[in-house]
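Slide 14.
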Amino acid sequence: MPGPLAFALDALIFIGLAWVVWRALGRSIPIAVIPIVIGLLLAATGALPASWGVPSTLGDQVGFLGVLLLAFTAGLETRQSAHLPSAPDAAPLPRTQAMRFIASAGMALLLPFALGTLAAHYYFTGLPGWAAPQGGAWMGALAIGLCLAVSALPVLIGIVRELGPLHRPLTHLALRIAVIDDAVLWTGLALLLIAAEGGSLLDGASSLTGVAMGVLVVLAAAGTLAQRLRAEPPAWLVWLALPVFLTTGAWASSHLGLHALLGAYFGGAMVPSTWTKRLPVERMGQFALIGIAPLFFGHSGLKIDGSVLGWASLQASLALLVLAVLAKLAAVLLCPPASTLSRRETLAVGALLQCKGLMEIVAATILRDKGLLSEHAFAALVTLAVLSTLLTGPFFRALVKRRVTADAHGRHAV
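Slide 15: predicted structure.
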């Protein structure tokens, strides 16, 4: 099939069909998971003829641009929270509460990461086809543990918007934790890739490598200086600066032996928060999520070897899901983010934080491309991300509904 027609069919399946299904289901499930499910079903059934040219080359390129923009907006969201739907003018926390909050965010990452890494090393990587192609057993286990620790900030923001203002204190708390976790995730991902290279990033460094490192330093310095000076350039200049942060960050990270998505994320995180307050970050993320990135995620599901999608893979995904959910809930119970929360409210925050969404798939894609995840592990983690995201809204609603019901019964009893 000619390239333009293949791209049109590509977009029709993973953008158009995904949107139609999402609307037909009354937006009851996050739109982010629909193209992934479509891709997984097509991969498992082999229903898409190879002669159709899907996934198309142009679709791959456009989808990758979409996920670069999604990573970039995730970086923008990490830098400042004025655009989050739950609290447009959130006041800083007192020192004691802030320390408790940071400790809770750290526990919500460390416990799932530690348990996931140990479970992967002593069980999952021993399954047929699960051994990492590169990096050794422990590197593969660390990669799986990192994916289990993810809290998906962009998708979580969308879910919180769908939940509405009724439960705003709880959803805002979860979002603030997810902002911290998201920044730590991408930093940890970069460190894991550097460790997997065994220091080879600096071995035989070329002049281009030096330029890439210099670009990142200049971006960070420019963003920090503009933030300290509280410079407020014209809006048109801010818009011109955004693609510079995005493209140069992605280019620099890819030439340092890392992944372009890491540079896109950190490029967004380097944009001064005084600038991001003037940007429609939500609409930028929605455009990437609905209009472009579905090609990337649909292709991620479609490119999975259909032979690895079976009962064994589903069992592994369910086991990882149970482990990830229980670890998140245990983490917030052991170290609640606020002393005023009841046990059920704390569990509701944990139910939001267990959402894996697109960020796990992005992280898993990077790790697979670098040889730290096998195709079997990647397929199970993509399935886990879909199941986790679908679980988030109903799980949260069930917890808060019971709490509201219990409060109502208590008032009637009095």
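Speaker note: Confidence is low (pLDDT under 50) at residues 80-91, 404-414.
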